[in-house]
């Protein structure tokens, strides 16, 4: 009985470790990430003309700084390439925003998409998920930003999937996938800039 009591105490003192975004990566990918290189995984989606993109990057800024950048919709166009505006149409709760993003895309021109961003917390990690509400460009757009602490900085895993309307599937694919990587790089750079601002 004493042994069972001791075992129970140990289990309470040392809970199971939560899964990390790093668990998704191979040894080579981890090496690239640790060297400061952005890691991009492309996952085919059955029936989808575009893949799901998963982007990983280390950020020299805490989770709170990344969250502050992501919630700053008014300032988003100042640091995200090709973003014209990010207008909050509704804010039904502290952690839910309905946002209309207007962007300029090569070959397509100016486009607008309205999504619902939902913020939550998984232990010390920030999770932002989004779903499409309205778009003239896409039938489906879903994704997630997960930011986990990493020493004094953090690690971003940015997942995005878009199912475009059929007429755009070929002509805009390369540009759209490139925009995802540019957006992650911009979030990283702005988080670091703000975290290190005097």
Descriptive report:
By secondary structure, the protein is an alpha+beta fold. It has one domain (29-195): Alpha-D-Glucose-1,6-Bisphosphate, Chain A, domain 4 (2-Layer Sandwich). Helices cover 26% and strands 42% of the residues. The chain has four helices and eight strands, in the order H-H-E-E-H-E-E-E-E-E-E-H. An eight-stranded antiparallel beta sheet has the order 1-2-8-7-6-5-4-3, sandwiched between helices. Mean pLDDT is 87; it is low at 1-18.
Question: Helices, strands, pairings?
Answer:
Blueprint: H1 2-13, H2 27-34, E1 39-43, E2 52-59, H3 63-71, E3 83-93, E4 96-105, E5 109-122, E6 125-135, E7 138-150, E8 153-164, H4 173-195
Antiparallel strand pairs: 1-2, 2-8, 3-4, 4-5, 5-6, 6-7, 7-8
Brief account:
It is built from four helices and eight strands. With 198 residues, it is an alpha+beta fold.
Features:
4 helices; 198 residues; alpha+beta; eight-stranded antiparallel beta sheet; disordered N terminus; Alpha-D-Glucose-1,6-Bisphosphate, Chain A, domain 4
Query: Rounded to an integer, what's the Rg over CA atoms?
Result: 19 Å
Helix-strand pattern: HHEEHEEEEEEH
Number of beta-strand segments: 8
Strand order of the largest sheet: 1-2-8-7-6-5-4-3
Helix amount = 25-40%
Strand content: 35-45%
CATH topology-level name: Alpha-D-Glucose-1,6-Bisphosphate, Chain A, domain 4
> Could you list the spans in which at least 5 consecutive residues all have pLDDT below 50?
1-18
Q: Calculate the terminal CA-CA distance, rounded to whole Å.
A: 58 Å
Query: How many separate domains make up the residues?
Result: 1
What overall geometry do the principal axes of the alpha carbons give? globular
Derived from helix and strand composition plus strand pairing, the structural class reads alpha+beta
What would you say the CATH architecture is? Answer: 2-Layer Sandwich
Helices, by number, come to: 4
CATH homolog superfamily = START domain
The overall average pLDDT, rounded, is 87
The first-level CATH class name: Alpha Beta
Largest beta-sheet details: 8 strands, antiparallel
């Amino acid at each position: 009985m004493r042994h069972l009591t001791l075992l129970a105490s140990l289990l309470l003192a040392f809970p199971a470790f939560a899964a990390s975004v790093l668990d998704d990566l191979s040894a080579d990918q981890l090496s690239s990430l640790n060297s400061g290189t952005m890691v991009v995984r492309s996952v085919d989606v059955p029936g989808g003309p575009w893949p799901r993109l998963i982007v990983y990057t280390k950020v020299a800024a805490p989770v709170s700084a990344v969250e502050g950048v992501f919630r700053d919709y008014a300032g988003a166009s100042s640091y995200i390439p090709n973003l014209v505006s990010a207008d909050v149409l509704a804010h039904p709760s502290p952690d839910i925003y309905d946002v209309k993003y207007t962007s300029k895309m090569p070959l397509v021109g100016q486009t607008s998409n309205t999504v619902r961003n939902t913020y939550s917390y998984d232990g010390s990690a920030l999770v932002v998920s989004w779903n499409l509400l309205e778009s003239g460009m896409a039938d489906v757009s879903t994704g997630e930003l997960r930011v986990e602490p990493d020493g004094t900085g953090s690690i971003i895993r940015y997942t995005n999937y878009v199912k475009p309307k059929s007429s755009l599937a070929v002509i805009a694919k390369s540009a759209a996938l490139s925009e995802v990587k540019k957006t992650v790089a911009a979030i990283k750079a702005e988080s670091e800039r703000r975290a290190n601002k005097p």
